[in-house]
Amino acid sequence: MAPVGGTAVQDHVALAEIELCGELIIAASAAEDRLSLESIDEVLRVAEEREPG
User: Please, which residues have CB within 8 angstroms of residue 46's CB and are 6 or more apart in sequence?
Assistant: First the structure.
């Protein structure tokens, strides 16, 4: 029997990681060759995190 109030737990960090992995898989499957490090950074939005401001 499930506890009152449910057992749903949302881990926002894990959900964000899953979303980024999905985007990386989509980009890799659409590419004709291996993704460059720059392409991977672009998909994972690494440059956005590094830019000040």
Answer: 40
pTM: 0.65
d(CA 53, CA 44): 19
Mean pLDDT confidence for 15-21: 92
Q: How far is CA 11 from CA 15, 16, 29, 43, in A?
A: 6, 9, 27, 22
Give the model confidence (pLDDT) of 30-53 as tens digits: 999 999 999 999 998 887 656 565
Q: Report the 3 state secondary structure along the chain.
A: CCCCCCCCCCCHHHHHHHHHHHHHHHHHHHCCCCCCHHHHHHHCCHHHHHCCC
Radius of gyration, CA atoms only, the chain: 17
